[in-house]
Amino acid sequence: MKYFSTRGGDQRLSFEETVLTGLAPNGGLYIPERIPSLPEGWRTEWKNYSFAELSVAVFSLFISPNEISAEELRTLVEKSYATFRHPDVTPMKKLNDKLFVLELFHGPTFAFKDVALQLLGNLFEFFLLRRNARKAVGGKQEKLTVVGATSGDTGSAAIYGLRNKANISIFILHPKGRVSPIQEAQMTTVTDANVHNVAVKGTFDDCQDIVKALFADKEFNAKHRLGAVNSINWARILAQTVYYFLSFFQFQSQLPASTSTDNAEIQYVVPTGNFGDILAGYYAKKLGLPIGKLVVATNSNDILTRFWRSGKYEKADSSAPVAEGAATPAQGSSDGKQATDSSGVKETLSPAMDILISSNFERLLWYLAYENAPGATDPEKHASACSTLDNWMGRMKANGRVEVPVEVLETARKDFIAERVSDELTLETIKSYYEGDPSYVADPHTAVGLAAARIIAPSNALNVHQIVLSTAHPAKFSEAVSRALEGLPGFNFDRDVLPEEFKGLLEKEKRVIDVEKADISLVKDVIENVAAKEVGAGAGAGSV
Ligand SMILES: *Cc1c(COP(=O)(O)O)cnc(C)c1O
């Protein structure tokens, strides 16, 4: 299997090159050259597979065995998911006959990004070790310096994915004193030699600007071989397809015996920011998993909801010139997104979905363009889709908006529904599910999904069942959860919500490098100093 850029060109990359490259040089995202087919009999054969077994089965469709053998895949996958606290990795809970939550937060940092980042770290390490083993004795070893900025929500998932990995150093910049104490502790209590938390005196935007400038500095970039782990990396999407398959089987086994599984339709509701999580569901569906609609649930950063209403993909809402909350200062936007003018990002109670544009949406747009492309043959349609995408993305960059033809919007509506949820409704939803039977404490991101599910449910056919993806543990976003549930009879956050792992976290040993000014040269010094020490300590410093 080879991969190509959504914006065209002759480049065809192996899986390894795709994963190590991240973003294509022409600004596009890599997608597989074709959608593979599921093996005959997968429904019976895969039915009782564990998460790890399903991962190997699905990944093997997208990774040539001469790149990574099934046995190697198995080792990588088992290592990646051994860090999860639940034997199912992503367990599913039933809230009522028509509603389930798929919990994606049982990894080391209590949020869904662990599913992909635990794998990505091991893949990086696997590729680097193999490249280095092939080098002549004394040859220069390949290393990777991963650099990223975080507003607090997701930096820890990257750190836990890459901690203790051979040939990799990771530097995560966060705005000093502007992330919550728990988020800060989740990052800075990882004291492995290859993990470097950098607390910058400044804002999240300052941190992100510094990271962008580092990547743009050709000389520095080449010297340290900078790498990114942001959500456009193909391996992250691939890793996430697995829980759609797993939950499909979990769902079937939980249905009452009287319900025919052939008549029950699953609708997935996904709290969405950069469109990575739900895109994995789209790939699962394209592979042939028989599922119904995918529901894009956004907070008031609703570019995607507006797209499904109007066919306009635009940063600012042109139908409502004075957007709600437009005067709010930009803050708390999510990690690792591509360059945007963040001045329009609204601060919400679900900060990991605070985005202006959704970086992975480009991948869906490619398929929509392909399905509506003129041309009789696959290569013709393929070329047409790439040039359409290049054109759309060019307009997006120049004008901050693009409108797709009506038939493209119609195609998008076949597989997706979109719904926007306000902060107010998010809080109400947390409260209402806590008071429900069974009582369920949802984090604010999950609550956006639960609220969207509830809005849509009345218009669903009777055979439709909803699975809401639960993307974070409620303790991770304690402020919103406490706000929603405070004062309710019998509610006790420490007793009912706080996991053992969070207790005492604030008192644990920390390691952090302070940078006194938001100045790129100071951050460069930090990276240079660490690199110099590693050389001094001999090859392999920071390795397993
Ligand atoms: C990243 C994140 C999301 C959004 O996922 P996307 O793949 O960016 O759409 C939702 N909830 C939480 C808790 C997250 O960390």
From TrEMBL:
SUPFAM superfamilies: Tryptophan synthase beta subunit-like PLP-dependent enzymes. One of its GO terms (molecular function) is pyridoxal phosphate binding. GO terms for biological process: threonine biosynthetic process. Pfam families: PALP, THR4_C, Thr_synth_N. Its cofactor is pyridoxal 5'-phosphate. Residues 93-341 form the Tryptophan synthase beta chain-like PALP domain. InterPro entries: Ser/Thr_deHydtase_PyrdxlP-BS (IPR000634), Thr_synth_N (IPR029144), Thr_synth_N_sf (IPR037158), Thr_synthase-like (IPR004450), Threonine_Synthase (IPR051166), TrpB-like_PALP (IPR001926), TrpB-like_PALP_sf (IPR036052). Residues 319-344 are annotated as: Disordered. PROSITE patterns: DEHYDRATASE_SER_THR. Residues 2-81 form the Threonine synthase N-terminal domain. Pathway: Amino-acid biosynthesis; L-threonine biosynthesis; L-threonine from L-aspartate: step 5/5. Its EC number is 4.2.3.1. The modification N6-(pyridoxal phosphate)lysine is found at K113. Residues 330-344 have a biased composition (Polar residues). Keywords: Amino-acid biosynthesis, Lyase, Pyridoxal phosphate, Threonine biosynthesis. PANTHER family: THREONINE SYNTHASE FAMILY MEMBER (PTHR42690), THREONINE SYNTHASE-LIKE 2 (PTHR42690:SF1). Belongs to the threonine synthase family. NCBIfam families: thrC. This is threonine synthase. The lineage of its organism: Eukaryota, Fungi, Dikarya, Basidiomycota, Agaricomycotina.
